[in-house]
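Work through this:
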Amino acid sequence: MTISQPTPAEFIATLERKGTRRTTPGGSGEVVWRVFGRGEPLVLLHGGTGSWLHWVRNIEDLSRDFMVVVPDIPGSGESATPEPPPTADRIASSMLAGLDSIIGANSDFAIAGLPVTRPPMEPLVVWRRLPTEEEKRAAHRRNLEILMLYDPRKVDELAVHIQATNAAQARVRGKHVAPSSALARCLQGFSGRLAGIWGEHDATAAPHFAERRDFLQKFQPAASFDILPGVGHWVQYEAPEAFNARLREVVKRVA
């Protein structure tokens, strides 16, 4: 007997039905959030040219222990475009206001991102003007191999579908916001706990892990810093079991 596997769209639709879609004011319209499970809030933020779909292999597992809150950051996914010019401070203010309404203004949460050295990387394939859908999918697959995933066997149909969806919906280039020093300015005196989880072959980080560890530990000498072996930048997709387990340990230790 042959058991058919769900298509990427079916997989995503099934997951989405397990949560609740919320919206809050933001930018030129609304910020879209998805909430799964019950318990202490765990907020999962995607990166540049992403969406809540970057967490599809983590949500169901983590929602067994937490209320998982996953937004589309303004300018990405289904959320509205931020007011121009898009800056980290402006986007963060919109997100904070929305998060306050969902989990409560007195709830704790954490964000991470580092203004440190990025290694040289093969240029990504420009896909928008390619003439056929087949060529566009091939470009998205190649971009996953260049930037996101280390093991080419992990570049599956779901990953390609997510990459194509996110790239088509993205209206704010992550590189125009990510270099901001806004987060670094906030870390001085931060009272929460800092931690880092990286993939061994992260195209945006390797081999400069010591710099990232030193940056975190400059603010908190006891900050944990984990490098998961054999995976790349999209570590939570490529190694979901290891990532979920380590994230659960870090968050529960904080709690």
Summary: The beta strands are 20-26, 29-36, 40-43, 66-71, 195-199, 224-228. Residues 114 and 184 are 7 Å apart (CA to CA). Residues 88-103 form the longest helix (16 residues).
